[in-house]
Amino acid sequence: MPISQKGLTPIAAVPVFLAVICYFFWGSIIEPDRLKASKHVLEGAKTIPIPNGHGPEGLEFDPQGGGPYVGVTDGRILKWSGEELGWVDFAHTSPHRNNCTRDAVVPSCGRPLGLTFDRKTGDLYICDGYFGLMRVGPEGGLAELLLGDVEGRNVTFANQGDIDEEDGIYYFNDSSDQYHFGEVFYVSISGDKVGRVVRYDIKKKEAKVIMDKLHLPNGLAASKDGSFVVICEGGTSILHRLWVKGPKAGTSEVFARVPGLPDNIRRTPSGDFWVALHCKYNFFTRLFLSHSLIGKTVMKILKMETVIHLMNGGKPHGIVMKLSGETGEVLHMLEDSEGKTMKYVSEAYEREDGTLWFGSVYWPAVWVMNTSVYDRK
């Protein structure tokens, strides 16, 4: 029996209705959340372009105060040498440089992410999103691979770490056992809890997993006294405090919850923490992260670029948060909500000279501003 025309009418009307809704309310649907406590000051930061590189995801300064050093898309680590010299090559994570391009990630070229100097030796430790944990000496050049697997699993997506110089221990996140840096947003929406925290003994050259079953562990930073590390879990927006010394060693607790997808975290000179959020929550972020079935369906039908566009609310923006080093309480929340100056902010790094530096996972620039802009007494 054929379906009647009468029965087709309401079915045919559904896509028309949805199209009308999207046309009139798309801005409200896709718009990132508005946060009342934010100070909209980031658009006033100074931009330092990187003409020869994209995506300075992580920032670091050497023991003499030089830098910043940044890792860029084509596998190099660049050093800022001032206005006259600009950015100069310092190191690289792969000997295979022929096919490397500043505009796209090439797996054979590597992708340096989190950077940490050992203040005692001058060695730079590098989390590479393809190769694993690496190190290069104070003179730079080709980095050596220190750790490519732990406990029978490859280090597939080394992300960010921090060093306990007193004990000679390096802690870092391995974000996924399936996806590399190039698929980072797929890691966030897949729902897979396969990320882990690794403890690497520099002298003994021994590594072990000290926390696992995490959904995209992204940033990691150690406390000022070295008693705990804070891990940013990108897939849940939870910051965990993992105790690594003292009577609570081996236990963890929720340190803070943030209103978006956390990226890198950095300790301040006073012992607090800056957390960069890749983006704030919106309708699509909540939808994609609501259930692994939804996330994995989205992975099959949408390109990565589309996923990033929707989760950023169609408008890449900048947001960072300063948290108390003791309680995780929010001390400051800074934004460039319209993305006029900052986009895809991945790290905020506060220095003792009163400057705050910012990196970006995709943009060809870093930014700097004075802390007095937001911290007036």
UniProtKB/TrEMBL annotation:
It is found in: Vacuole. This is Protein STRICTOSIDINE SYNTHASE-LIKE 8-like. The chain crosses the membrane at residues 7-26. Belongs to the strictosidine synthase family. Keywords: Glycoprotein, Membrane, Transmembrane, Transmembrane helix, Vacuole. The keyword Transcription regulation does not apply. The keyword Transmembrane helix applies.
